[in-house]
Amino acid sequence: MINNPILRCLNLNKTFKDSYAVTDITFEISEGEILAILGPSGCGKTTTLRLIAGFETPELGSIEIAGKLMSGPGTFIAPEKRNVGMVFQDYALFPHLSVIDNVGYGLKNTGQEEARLRMVLTMAGLVRLQNRMPNELSGGEQQRVALARALVRSPNILLLDEPFSNLDIKLRQQVRVEVKDILKNNGVSSLFVTHDQREAFEMGDRIIILNEGHIEQVGTAEDIYEHPNTTFVAQFVGIADFLPIYTTANTTQCALGSLYIKQNLTNMANVTLMIRPTDTSICPSDQGSGTIISRIYQGAFTLYRILLNTGDFVHSLVPSKQKLQIGTKVNLRLKSDHIPRCFEGDRAINIA
Amino acid sequence: MKSLIDSKSFASKTKQNGSMWVLWLPSMFVVIAMSLPLIWLFARSIDAGSDFWDLVLRPRTLSIMLRSISLVIAVTITSALIAVPMAWLTTRTDLPYRKLWGIIAPLPLVIPSYIGAFLVVIALGPKGLLQDGLDLVFGIEQIPSIYGFTGAWLTLSLLSYPYIFLPVRATLSRMDRSIEEASHNLGKGSWSTFKNITLPLLKPSITSGGILVALYTLTDFGAVSILHYETFTWAVYIQFESMIDRSMASIFSLILVLLAILILLPTTLYSNKGRLYRNDPGTPTLPPPIPLGKWRFIATLFCIIVILFSLVIPMSVLTYWLVRGFEFFPSLTNILTATWNTFSIAIIASIMALVSSIPIAILAVRYPNSWTKLLERWTYMGFALPGLVIALALVFFGSQFATPLYQTRTLLVFGYLILFIPGCLGSLQSSLEQINPRLEEAARSLGSGGLKVFLSITLPLLRPGIMSGLALVFLLTAKELPATLILAPIGFSTLATLIWSNASEAFFAQTAAYSLVLILLSSLPMIFLISKRT
Q: What is the pTM of this model?
């Protein structure tokens, strides 16, 4: 539990006829934090955002923003009264209003609104574009208008729904940096949804992995990549292969050799070892334990896919100066600094 | 939309082959046909010579003008006030049975204005059903007269609001919902969002629907004649019938056409403004309908009242007279002959209109340049030509220059073509604009010639547009009264002309019988058109 979180979701449940449902969603965001929700399409990411924004009513659970109950048993605050900013996936700019009118739309007459509008337009770099219409803007510019419009009311929290998915890849990288700078410089607490693992790692202080409507794991990028709780998480945030582990009374073995694991795994069934492509090194050998079946040249590194003699597949990422052809027999070895992560079924086993 | 514009310019840059005359030749026929009424109006006005301004500025002309304009304004506003809330309620809220309401609401379109007016007279007129009832129960012997402005206004508003309802509803169901959500998210309530976001985005649809209603009202002949409200159409007809002063008829016609052009002006203004901008959202989300809460009852009541007056009561009155006047029914042969005449002429007119519109649609969409633009504009100008004016022009040309054609069905069909080609072109053009020209280019690259590409690729893909074009022209032809009345050869009666003649002579039972058949006949294309829209 975080002290005085800006957002607290407790056991949120919402079902739909077909898909996009969520079950028992619980998480918190602290002031100024950027939290990413990462998951495949249809996993309920957007539904979670819409519940927080107030466009959907949860069937169970509660939502608190800045200490105030927004949704809960017997309580439902209308979307317009929540002071939650939202950047929509398709930006949802008002097509009949100019940039300045779009950004200023949410401002109330306080006497200071002119100054606030100037400030936000300047911050988002929109001053020169302020009289353009939305259809006269490029994708990146539209995205900045959507962001400025959502920030103009100094919302308690900013929600971003796949904010970069409508931009081409080259622009995406640059806009991500710009947006993160704006959010961090202004201390905006934000929650954004993405299906792109790189985006989540780059933007999020912490990440929630969502799958089929429930939370698989919450943590920092390092946590999630290095200590995935489930095989789903392991495979969703990068390449992971799982090799079966065979245990006897005093040895623990896998296709790559014996492992040093203190914990007794003998009473568990279906135990596997997670292998990331960087966990192994390979060297060609006629008596090798596997054969290269594909290679993807990535620049500095090359990714090999190896069929082990046991019938398992393993990926290995190797500096490109070592050039190996498809069909080469290789010996595969776990690197010495490898810390084993084992799974029973699809759940991680905590190894001391 | 962007790729569409690119592909247009691409098509225009590709070298146009020598077979363009295949498209241009039939198009010129349409251009000449559309010009005839204008030539007639122009020639007649010159004939009038120095009397022209004298006739235009007569107090009578001005009072007819005032009546026509006030009716147009009143009907258009009333229709919008009925149509916009209904469209919103049936797409955005938790109105009970909102899907059903959405299907029922456009149905009054099948009732031609003259049938509507006739039903108003027998229900609310002197010695009508309402007065009979009041006399019986309360002994009230006189009710306010339904003739004149009130009757025409009520009848036309209740029958023409679907022209606004349909485009507004279509826009609402297509509109990106996150735009309204964005407004809520920025702290605006439902009313503020509707006023500042939804309504401005609906403006183009309301305008285009409103233009249809205004044109429909301005050029309506049946309702204003039956309800004795003297507008230009009725005045023109009387001048024509009485044969006293033909130049007065043409001057009234000229003013009528000028007013119609005035009404159509906003469309040319609007087409230049930015289109409704929309990105396709990646995640399909269907936000819950807006809860009406305590307004739910009032909203439902509103819909019930509208449908009651525009559909239920008219159809009940019609049924009442069908039952009551059963013994006075026209013979089955008469009904069948009239039905066959109506059906066959409407089929011929719709096929001819389609064939004439296709070349223009292709030229306008695939080969945009200043000439094809002019061709397109000239054809759409036909929207400003009321049936009455076209008919009078053809009577003039037929009797003066083409006597073999005068008083033939050919001339009647020709009149329908001038009248309805613009509508047909509209549905073809919008359908053609959705066909990616790359598909045609792909067929070309696979070795097919122009004609084969047209028959094997363009035509099948164009089918939705073709079907709705046919249905539209069929519906309009079957309902058309003034052009049929004036151009139909002696002895050739359609359902519309029989309804008119029986209603004018107060043969209520006969009128009701023919009306029912016409409504049923018009329902077929109508059902098709509505099911396509929703």
A: 0.78
